[in-house]
Amino acid sequence: MRHIAIVGSGPAGYYTAEAAVKKWGEDALIDVYDKLPVPFGLIRTGVAPDHQSIKAVSRRYEKTAIGDTVRFAGNVTVGEDITVEELTSLYDAVVLATGAPRDRQLDIDGAGSRNVIGSAAFVGWYNGHPEFAQLDPDLSGKHAVVVGMGNVALDVARILSKSQHEFAGSDIVAHALEALRESNIETISILGRRGPHQIMMTPKELGELLHLDRASPHVDNADLPPLEDDAFLEPGVRKSVTLLRDFAAIPENIHGEKPIAIEFDFFANPKAIVSEGGKVAGVEVERTKVEAGRAVGTGETYSVPADLVVTCIGYRTSPLKGVPFDERAGCFANDEGRILPGLYCVGWAKRGPSGTIGTNRPDGYSVIDIVDQDIGGGSRKRGREGFDELAQTRGLEIVTFRDWQKIEEAEIAAARKGAPREKFVDIDSMIAARGA
Predict the structure, then answer these.
(1) DSSP calls for 59-102
(2) pLDDT per residue over 217-226, tens digit each?
(3) Residue 275 forms beta bridges with which residues?
(4) CB of 101 within 8 A of CB of 13?
(5) 37-73 burial code (b ≥16 CB/10 A, e <16)
(6) Integer Cα distance of 382 and 199 in angstroms
């Protein structure tokens, strides 16, 4: 019998569990740990609430989670309730699938001003993550700045600009929906250090901006490279740049019909946050040029007004005591998923915040192949039985997958009209709902 612990119940964690089941069948017991009482990681708290089709992948994970071979053990914080060292003493293999839940910091003067918010916190706020539900961003001003040129920046800009009825069918939480209803934002500036040809936004997400009821995307023609240069781009990037050209061609009278402008500001490197009374009032920006794919400052500076700044510049894995960490990459130090004997990593915890949800599937299968090479038929370690004894002595309140199903039932029952659920946004309420 093989005893496997997976820390993290997001896509990387459940794809790894799926791979383990296919590799060993009933010759393994797999425990999936999560610090929250609810599973699925960024599917629940990271994917935009108006992208329900993406969230549907969780149904695949349910097939893995239901049964005796794989057990969800929620409400267990590895590093506090139990150490990594203790887990490796109990299990033949421990796979860290903790993702990258921390924001990469914007390291400029004034970044600590009020209403300068990282995307992990802001996205967690409108998705109901318990750590960020009380964030309460100030949306009373007219100008928002979003720093970054990836899909997360697009998500933030889109959520800030949508009308109430456009959230029909989404699972945005009630406190965010109410705050957005009262929002006074009129301009959303998206700042990117490089140009359109280096954009990381994908065509599907960019295209959504053309269909917003009250917002219109703006691109300055002067920022666009010669049309013939597009021929050298990868097909996906070329489609995105074509959409940017479409945005630049929107007539001014069409822009005037919509009260919110989403302005793409390319070749713009934030240099400082300007604050008044400790609260953000603007962003000082240096104009750049692209040389050999890198943004190089020109010395020309200008100011962008900002009552809210959301930084979408990447994520980092949270370090764990005793686990080697690669500070530069922002993930665990590893060799193809191996960290230390008996300790592995997968997904963003292994490679940093790159790829799509689907990228985690081959990653999970690959790490299980490596684990299989390393542990063979398993050992005499106690695994689940040993953890349960330890949990009892420490008074840990474990939430199982069946408990989660009761929590989900309660969220569905509480949903506003047209919404799939109303999420609980604090851990006590989640735990209480399992007994309802």
Answers:
(1) HHHHHHHSSSSEEEEBS--BTTTB-HHHHHHH-SEEEE-----E
(2) 999 999 999 9
(3) 280
(4) no
(5) bbbbbbbbbbbbbbbeeebebbeebeebbeeebbbbb
(6) 50
Q: How many Å apart are CA 308 and CA 239, to the nearest integer?
A: 30
Asked if residue 344 has pLDDT above 80, the reply is yes
Structure pTM?
0.94
Residues 409-429 have a mean pLDDT of 96
CA distance 393 to 387: 10
Burial class of residue 28 (count of CB atoms within 10 Å of its CB; 0-12, 13-18, 19+): buried
What the block records as the tokens of 428 is: 């006590």
Tokens of 235: 């097909």
Gap between the Cα atoms of 417 and 326, Å rounded: 46
Contact 82, 390 (CB under 8 A): yes
Q: What is the pLDDT of residues 254-310, one digit of tens each?
A: 767 899 999 999 999 999 999 999 999 999 999 999 999 899 999 999 999 999 999
Decide the pairing of beta strands 70-73 and 116-118. Answer: unpaired
Domains identified in the chain and CATH numbers: 2-101+317-433 (3.40.50.720), 103-315 (3.50.50.60)
